[in-house]
Description:
Radius of gyration: 34 Å
Strand content: 5-15%
Number of helices: 12
Largest sheet: 4 strands, antiparallel
Strand order of the largest sheet: 6-7-9-8
Distance between the termini: 74 Å
Number of strands: 9
Helix content: 55-70%
Amino acid sequence: MEKTFSSEVKDELCLLNIKTLQAAAAELAAMLIFGENTDTDNIVIKSGRAENAARIQALLKKTGGQRIAIDVSERKNIYTVKIPKNAAENLGVYITEQGDIELDEEIIENENEKRAFLRGAFIVSGTITPPEKNYSCELFTMNENMAYIAAEILESLGVKANTVKRKEYFVTYLNDCESVTAFLGIIGAQTALLHLMTTQVEKDYRNQTNRIFNCRVANIDKMIKAAAGQCAVIERLMASQKWEELTPQLRALAELRMENKESSLAELGEKMSPPISKSAVNRRMSRLLELAKKLD
């Protein structure tokens, strides 16, 4: 089965080096919050990705936490990670008496911790649209407060984010190229970022080429319509007594236009003997049109 762009980004993030204990704790805290499902004694994270489970194990090891067993459902290959509540509290994640999860925001005070927190949120709950199609990135959580915290973190890092409720989820989302590009840089997805930027350059080139082509087609169409109108006017003059009254210069241009119905004014000027400028051709053509109006 071909991997989605979201999976490719997550694969890249799961292989990043875990540099500091603080960053590891922030990333793991986000995973607990955005991937959470609580039971009596644990915060439970379920994922169909072995890479996510392995990343959680690595983060736990970095933070000095206990090694957690990972259960795998044989039927659906679902990886289930259970983090004891006391281990979660050591990471700044607390469960209230009402069963809600809260975050000690001291663990995301500096920029590196904020980046790590967003990275963890994306790994367990994020989606991103392939840049070939559109620019959209979303983080899902069932915790409304966490959706707003994610948006606040992004804005503190210079990225405008929005939130919306979608069924039972609260979604923090980005929907423009600049914001999605910045987000990939923030969470450390450099390969995905390069792919997005390359795709954007290719899109811009194609769009520019299409604009130039469309402009040329429009100009040619305009020129052909103008030439057809000029030929019709000249035919009327040729069939009238006015034709014999034309100056040699006007008559020469009129005959040249009838012989070159698809030529531009500049091209007609080059074919005149002696050659004349486009503006001179335009003045003479305007004179022909004025004379034709007097036939009405």
